[in-house]
Amino acid sequence: MHFDNYTTDGFFDEMFEAPGKVRPHYKVLAERFDRLSDEEFEEKRQAVDLSFLRAGVTFTVYSDNQGTERIMPFDLIPRIIPAGEWELLERGLKQRLEALNLFLHDIYHDQKILKDNVIPPSYVLSSKDFRREMVGVDVPRNIYIHICGTDLIRDDKGQYLVLEDNGRCPSGVSYVLENRAAMRRAFPNLFPAAGVRPVEHYSEDLLKMLKYISPVQDREPTVAILTPGVYNSAYFEHCFLARQMGVEIVEGRDLVVRDYKVYMRTTKGLQQVDVIYRRINDDFLDPSVFNPDSLLGVPGLLNAVRAGNIGLANAIGTGVADDKVMYYFVPRMIKYYLDQDPILPNVETYLPSEKKDYDFVINNLDKLVVKSANEAGGYGMLMGPWASKEEIAKFHDDIQKNPRNYIAQNPISLSRHPTYCGEAGFEGRHIDLRPYIICGEDIKITPGGLTRVALRKGSLVVNSSQGGGAKDTWVLYKE
Length: 479
Description:
This protein is of the alpha+beta class and 479 residues long.
């Protein structure tokens, strides 16, 4: 019924092997949706949207002059991952995060990977997020990236590829939890029948990890989430996680450093804080060291970190691993530190700063995707095959001036998924996947993640700030 006219158009489709032929792990879902009338489907869709509106499930678009607060667009058709696929993803993501944490500890201590020239030292030392202030500083449990959101895509053959690692302040996990709650209300009987693994324990795992990195273990540690405030794009998420974990949410003005320890201002006086889950980038974290104009951070916080009196998730300096140029070298990190081949490959990537790649990139900008090394959210990106001559000319000049600041990749035909498109019915839209990884006493990956969908027809950009939406992601217990 709903999918009778659906076509795969030559792309790898998550739900259909071919028109009319549903993949085995989608059969329960397809049968359930086929029993829904158009009116019933619309009722459920509107009920989910209303539940998001009432819960305040929003994000902020800074460039939008029609009002910044928006409800996250949500599509009712979930993305489903069978058990065998998920087991592969888990192994690959754990391997990747382990290597990234070893890399960060190394570059802030012995720098063996640089001395062995596995990664040219200039790339690390010239990264704007390499923090010389952290060299020689030990962090709790030697963990730098505690919360990671690694973006995955599938190509036209269905192979999973890593698009990028988000190891500073990855956002979006609140939508994972809210999406699941909304789907459970809309389809209460479907989850047991489909055999879907739960995601609701994420907040419990997050709090356990935060307590694990506390510098004090002889008492119950005080944990707080540090937010930039109500105007931040992810403020809903900061409040959501604080409420879920039962911890305080604070702004920089609520904290003060005394004798190399961090305290929270309360109605009963100062209370020591042992662990901070910070949702503020390094630049704004400590105005006495980084950006002196920042009103968001806490003066003296770095000194408390150096003294070992505060656990900070994620650690200061993790941004160097987020640098898109470092992404190019992650397979080398895995080989160097773990003596393993990557389980999940990178997208083929070119560095304009390398002589062997420079001419190719400059001469093929109309065929490549070019990304700025330190931008996020779909900004600072050239989609060559769809770009105007003016856009291409601008990137040509920018790359010539600063080749270190860019990477280039061949466009990937992202996999597609049936998505409700209003009067057009169900059409294929490109998707990616951001699983959430927590690294504490062990590495835990919430079974699922945020499936982002490019709602504009033909678009490959899935970011919510660029017109994207989200789907619930189901990981099955069985194949």
